[in-house]
Amino acid sequence: MSYYSGLLSKDWKFSMKGQVQSYLFLLLIWTLSVAVSFRLSEPLIAMSIGVTLIVIHILYVPTDMIINLGREQKLKLWLHNPQPSYVLLSSKLFISILNCLLSIAFAVGLYAVVCVLFNVPFLQGKTLSESFALLWSVIGFGLYLGVWAVFLWSQYAASIGKRFEKLRIAISGLIAYVIFQLHEGFILSTLFDSMKEIGSFPVVSIGTKVINETNEYQEISMGVSMSEFSLALVALFLAVSLFVFLLSVRNMKKIEI
Fold first, then answer.
1. Closest by CA position to 49, among listed 118, 145, 96
2. How far is Cα 160 from Cα 106, in angstroms, rounded to an integer?
3. Is the pTM of this model over 0.85?
4. Is the dihedral of CA 37, 40, 43, 44 positive or negative?
5. Rounded (to 5) percent helix, strand, coil in the chain
6. Is residue 15 within 8 Å of 96, Cβ to Cβ?
7. What was the pLDDT predicted at 168?
8. pLDDT < 50 regions, the chain
9. Pairing of strands 200-213, 218-230
10. What is the pLDDT of residues 79-104, one digit of tens each?
11. Which parts of the chain are beta strand (E)?
């Protein structure tokens, strides 16, 4: 396994620049929110931004993987690497998840500083389990999006420079649309509701809801709310993730990296 640890080390070093940039971005937004909160004597602004900086980590793994894979393709660093595609891809995914966890910890730390600065309770009336529900929802959903992002990128990248390139890219776009529709249909199905009852546990969902409605007007708010997931659904989505990962590995073999 020494070759794999070496690959992890290489991917870790390769990711450091992006990780530092991520920390600086979080710190900049946090500093601005704190300054505005002090200026307006309104701690809710900094606290809301603090929570938002945690939630946006849902997009960390998919964004990070697409950027790193695109860089690898341009630099052709994989060209002379004798390791199988699944080893190369799993190493990048592992480092991306690790960096995501570290970045989330940094964002939580910034939120904690806000609570100290404005002398407000850390949990804001929420239970500890609800706070952890937010964290594992962000991590779990972000990882699932990341696996799909790698697959869709590999579909697109495998089309570049091939015969019928535009048709292949169009098919990739169609696949993305079908994937979205299938997930939406499944979430609205009775099967999803039934599986949600098997080993259920609390999660945080992100979405919109109507908070004020008249015959001619609707006021919609976006935010987070408590919901439920289950061990059965976790098992299902893990199986889907593994299958999608294997499809991505298959696509990687078609890419001239």
1. 118
2. 38
3. no
4. negative
5. 75, 10, 15
6. yes
7. 74
8. 218-221, 257
9. antiparallel
10. 556 677 788 888 889 999 999 999 99
11. 200-213, 218-230
